[in-house]
Specification:
By secondary structure, this protein is an alpha/beta fold. It folds into 2 domains: 201 residues, 3-Layer(aba) Sandwich (Rossmann fold), CATH 3.40.50.150; 72 residues, rRNA adenine dimethylase, C-terminal domain (Helicase, Ruva Protein, domain 3). The chain is built from 12 helices and 9 strands. The strands form 2 sheets. A 7-stranded mixed β-sheet has the order 4-3-2-5-6-9-7, sandwiched between helices. It has a two-stranded antiparallel ribbon with strand order 1-8. Helix 6 crosses helix 8. The protein is elongated and about 65 Å long.
Length: 288
């Protein structure tokens, strides 16, 4: 297979897919990045050290894969489409490790079998991209730097600050372990096929104070605080899942000591305020 300039040409990509008998599936978010300038910008944002272990989610036909292989020989790619897996094998052979199947069903086992990645990159499906990122955060598998291309509306939620209309529980999940930065927006014309939406490239850079390992209380608290956006934090916590572990008196006391105003709505609280509340809550429970 002659891959020369394959990734820059709609005609060559279309011919390759027809030759392989592959019909793209919208549910998989299969849009291949044609623009070489955007590809270079995305790869540069990854700040990839030579030889680093990398995971690539949704490589498609290898639009970014070939650029990654210029920097590392330790690349694992996760691809759900069996037809595209054939193309990847033809193009790259044994130079990459391919994990077939749904990333959400395979990444935990992959992480257990091999060394954790030093970088993660992915052009994520519009329908499940936020779920993938949330799962990586909850499992504490995000490395020092991860770069994702995803729907602009999802990126806006990742970047949002307290009080903004886009601020949500997903904002707080993404910001727990990482600082989120926008690299650029990418119009639909930069892809084949061209989606009718704008995408954004975001970089997640691990915070020096990122809590390690499972941190179920944080995710439970965030979910509770946003379970009903119209209700106050106090009303949401009083009937939320955190009550299964802590008494209402303990929650009130920790909120008072940390300065978390239970009369406000959850969307007004920052990551640091919630962490401080939980720190005091856990300390008081251990001392009791």
């Amino acid at each position: 297979m002659n891959e020369l300039n394959l990734w820059d040409s709609k005609q060559k990509i279309r011919a390759l897919l027809e030759e392989q008998g592959i019909q793209l599936k919208k549910r998989f978010g299969q849009n291949f990045l044609l623009d070489p300038n955007h590809r270079r910008r995305i790869l540069s944002a990854l700040e990839l050290p030579a030889g680093a272990r990398v995971w690539e989610i949704g490589p498609g036909i290898g639009s970014l894969t070939h650029g990654l292989l210029e920097r590392t020989d330790d690349l694992t790619v996760f691809e759900i489409d069996h037809g595209l897996v054939r193309i990847l094998r033809d193009l790259f052979g044994s130079s990459i490790t391919i994990v077939e199947g749904d990333f959400l069903k395979t990444f935990r086992e992959t992480a257990q079998k091999a060394s954790l990645p030093e970088r993660i990159i992915g052009n994520l499906p519009y329908s499940t991209g936020s779920i993938m990122i949330g799962a990586l955060v909850e499992e504490d598998l995000l490395p020092d730097i991860a770069v994702f291309t995803l729907q602009k509306e999802v990126a806006d939620r990742m970047l949002a600050h307290p009080g903004c209309k886009d601020y949500s529980s997903f904002s707080l999940v993404c910001q727990l372990r990482s600082r989120v930065e926008k690299i650029c927006d990418v119009g639909g014309g930069a892809f084949f096929p061209s989606p009718q939406i704008v995408s954004s490239v975001v970089r997640l850079r691990r915070r020096p104070d990122a809590p390690a390992g499972p941190f179920s209380d944080y995710f439970t608290a965030v979910h509770d605080l946003f379970r009903s956006r119209r209700k106050t934090a106090g009303n949401n916590l009083k009937t939320g899942s955190l009550r299964e572990r802590y008494s209402w008196d303990s929650l009130q006391r920790a909120a008072g000591q940390s300065g978390l105003d239970l009369g406000k709505r959850g969307e007004t609280f920052s990551r640091d305020e919630i962490l401080n509340f939980l720190r005091i809550l856990n300390t008081a429970t251990k001392d009791a």
